[in-house]
């Protein structure tokens, strides 16, 4: 009786080439355990806050109103602030592992109406960006998506038709998101959403920096 060494060079199906995905981009979906309680507090706070039609981001979004001033809701509801930082720490500990504590640099509570759009964009001078889906129904509201950067000022990547989609040639990507999720990603990753089908898509966007 003879046996064949599975690592033998004589095997006809020995590995001849390998393809690697270098520098994967971490995106974390964190399901908020106390979402129902937080949502109730946020909606109560919204009822007493002003709606800002002009908020400084009109160049990249349409039919999106801001509720209250920047950082106002996270300062008014300490439990919300702690929940966001906890989600960011979990993301960091599972991915890049920056040696730092974190703080919220700026945040916007946003109300998207029917037909709202957010053009693809990035954020500078921060580590992470996130979106908390406070009032969100996937059947009624636009999903968030991310775009691979294929441009460069000096060395743009040539784009031609592919035989099929693979993780290496996709230019846009998304995944299933539910109400109560916080999605965290590097701030320089292009993100946005297409035309929103119905009213009352409520989200909190925040940008994260190292804390002092």
CATH topology: Jelly Rolls
The biggest sheet amounts to: 10 strands, antiparallel
Pick out the low-confidence regions.
none
So what's the CATH class? Mainly Beta
Number of domains: 1
Summed over residues and divided by their number, the pLDDT gives a mean of 92
Radius of gyration in whole Å, from Cα? 21 Å
Walk me through this protein's architecture.
β2 (51-52) and β3 form a beta hairpin. With 212 residues, the protein is α+β, with helices and mostly antiparallel strands. It has helices spanning 35-47, 72-76, 78-93; strands at residues 28-31, 51-52, 61-67, 102-121, 128-135, 145-147, 172-173, 181-186, 190-193, 201-210. Strands 1, 2, 3, 4, 5, 6, 7, 8, 9 and 10 form a ten-stranded antiparallel beta sheet that branches. The chain has a single domain (28-150, 171-210), classed as q2cbj1_9rhob like domain (Jelly Rolls, Sandwich). The model has no long low-confidence stretch (mean pLDDT 92). The longest helix is centred in the middle third of the chain and has 16 residues, at 78-93. It starts with 27 loop residues before the first strand and ends with a strand. Helix content is 16%, strand content 31%.
């Amino acid at each position: 009786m003879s046996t064949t060494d599975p690592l033998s060079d004589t095997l006809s199906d020995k590995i001849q080439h390998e393809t690697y995905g270098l520098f994967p981009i971490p995106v974390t979906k964190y399901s908020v355990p106390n979402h129902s309680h937080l949502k109730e507090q946020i909606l109560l706070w919204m009822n007493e806050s002003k709606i800002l039609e002009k908020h400084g981001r009109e160049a990249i979004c349409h039919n999106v109103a801001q509720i209250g001033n920047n950082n106002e809701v996270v300062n008014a509801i300490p439990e919300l602030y702690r929940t966001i930082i906890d989600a960011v720490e979990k993301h960091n500990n599972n991915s890049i592992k920056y040696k730092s504590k974190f703080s919220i640099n700026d945040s916007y509570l946003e109300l998207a109406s029917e037909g709202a759009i957010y053009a693809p964009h990035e954020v500078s001078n921060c580590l992470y960006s996130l979106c908390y889906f406070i009032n969100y129904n996937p059947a009624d509201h636009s999903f968030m998506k991310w775009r691979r950067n294929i441009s460069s000022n000096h060395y743009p990547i040539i784009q031609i038709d592919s035989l099929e989609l693979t993780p290496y040639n996709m230019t846009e990507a998304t995944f299933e998101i539910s109400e109560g999720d916080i999605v965290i990603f590097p701030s320089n990753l292009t993100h946005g959403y297409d035309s929103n089908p119905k009213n009352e898509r409520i989200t909190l966007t925040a940008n994260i920096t190292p804390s002092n």
